[in-house]
Specification:
The complex is a heterodimer of chains A (about 110) and B (about 110). Chain A contains no helices and nine strands. With about 110 residues, chain A is mostly beta strands. In chain A, strands 1-9-8-3-4 form a five-stranded mixed beta sheet, with no helix packed on it. A four-stranded antiparallel beta sheet of chain A has the order 2-7-6-5, with no helix packed on it. In chain A, β5 and β6 (about 60-65) form a beta hairpin. Chain A is globular. Chain B is mostly beta strands and about 110 residues long. Chain B is about 0% helix and about 55% strand. In chain B, strands 2, 4, 5, 6, 9, 10 and 11 form a seven-stranded mixed beta sheet that branches. In chain B, β9 and β10 (about 105) form a beta hairpin. Classes of the chains: A mainly beta (about 110), B mainly beta (about 110).
């Protein structure tokens, strides 16, 4: 299973953009890049996913490098409710298994 | 309406007991999963069922037995509970494709004394 590398923690100020990086240098052609987040005492929550092109939805944007070896989750205006652990996951089209790493703990300061 | 629900939310029991955790989804999904999150907060997949058929079975002790009476339910039965089984267990469901978004339940915190 391909692995991802994320910073352990990041800080942001409220209402400022946040860029959460993820490296996945061993990504294969059938791997989708998924982002989930886990708020305190809750189950993981889907944020966004992509394969090759950049993606936008109501929660965030996903910027994928041209060689697909890295990606960045962008929260356009962080709120206090965005404080969570953010997981970057490679989801294999072969196995269908979500392999969670340690994630990035995002702190949002008022 | 809760999409993926689990009962109970908390479960405290003695070593050696047998217990079950129930999961139900009302999303009409074909695939359901069980994950374990240990004290270090690592989330790890345990099992996956698609239309009541086991499709993923990670290296989990055979004291853990998933049961899917229908595709909306995936229960987890644990025999002879051990201290190391203490964790938060999450159920999830997905439409059916291997790369479909997974929707997680609120979790069941199991404490084995």
């Amino acid at each position: 299973d391909a692995k991802t590398t994320q910073p352990n923690s990041m800080e942001s100020n409220e209402e400022e953009p946040v860029h959460l990086p993820c490296n996945h240098s061993t990504i294969s052609g059938t791997d989708y890049i998924h982002w989930y987040r886990q708020l305190p005492s809750q189950g993981p929550e889907y944020v966004i996913h992509g394969l090759t092109s950049n993606v936008n939805n109501r929660m965030a944007s996903l910027a994928i490098a041209e060689d697909r070896k890295s990606s960045t989750l962008i929260l356009h205006r962080a709120t206090l409710r965005d404080a969570a652990v953010y997981y970057c996951i490679l989801l294999s089209g072969n196995t269908g298994k979500l392999i969670f790493g340690q994630g990035t703990t995002l702190q949002v300061k008022p | 309406d809760t999409a993926v629900s689990q009962t109970p939310k908390y479960l405290v029991t003695q070593m050696g007991n047998d217990k079950s955790i129930k999961c139900e989804q009302n999303l009409g999904h074909d695939t359901m999963y069980w994950y374990k999150q240990d004290s270090k907060k690592f989330l790890k997949i345990m099992f996956s069922y698609n239309n009541k058929e086991l499709i993923i079975n990670e290296t989990v002790p055979n004291r853990f037995s998933p049961k899917s009476p229908d595709k909306a339910h995936l229960n987890l039965h644990i025999n002879s509970l051990e201290l190391g089984d203490s964790a938060v267990y999450f159920c999830a469901s997905a439409a059916g494709g291997k790369t479909d978004t997974q929707y997680f339940g609120p979790g069941t915190r199991l404490t084995v004394l």
